[in-house]
Amino acid sequence: MTETSSRGLSRFRLVLWGLVVLVAVAATAIFVMRPPASPVGLTGAPFTLQSTAGGTFTQDSLKGKPSLVFFGYTYCPDVCPTTLAELAGLREQLKLTPDQLQIVFATVDPERDTVPVMAKYVSGFGTPIVGLSGSNAQVDTAKTAFGIYSKKVNDDGKGNYLVDHTATVFLLDKNGAFQSTID
């Protein structure tokens, strides 16, 4: 190897090591300076819905106890009732009370899922589940706060339709901060 190529290789290594250090410093800065976790819910955005437990339910209602939050609708033929039954069974299996683990079911179909409809529906799972509904605008705000997608499909024009929607269960800690999703 010639002296010139040796110097070129040394400079290349030096530049490469400089880039490694730069990336390490940048990654550390991003980690240290990242914003804290959302204070409440998934995004921390405020929302207000009507609760089957009475009164309004806001992002602040998620504080004080861990919560499992699921968005769906009462006319769902399979995923929603199965998920709620599994969540109720999970809480029972863990021997937790509703004060130790709150289960929240928010509608993506406020046209059909009024508060009385939600109350009747959630009462069928054998354990207290908080049902949430509201106006279209209120539900849209809550969906946005949790990053929920929903869309009416197969609408026959007579009020019979399905709703495609995100089927994720959100686990929030006792401060209402997002911790994880549950499959």
Which series of helices and strands comes N to C? Answer: HEEEHEHEHEEEE
- The strand count comes to 9
Mean pLDDT: 84
Distance between the termini: 58 Å
Strand order of the largest sheet: 2-1-5-4-3-8-9
Estimated structural class: alpha+beta
What does this structure look like?
The protein contains 4 helices and 9 strands. It is an alpha+beta fold. A 7-stranded mixed β-sheet has the order 2-1-5-4-3-8-9. A hairpin with an 8-residue loop joins strand 6 (150-153) and strand 7 (162-165). 28% of the residues are buried.
Keyphrases for this structure?
alpha+beta, seven-stranded mixed β-sheet
SSE topology sketch:
Layout: H1 3-33, E1 48-51, E2 56-58, E3 67-72, H2 79-93, E4 102-107, H3 115-123, E5 130-133, H4 136-146, E6 150-153, E7 162-165, E8 169-172, E9 178-182
Parallel strand pairs: 3-4, 4-5
Antiparallel strand pairs: 1-2, 1-5, 3-8, 6-7, 8-9
Short description:
With 183 residues, this protein is of the alpha+beta class. Helices cover 36% and strands 22% of the residues.
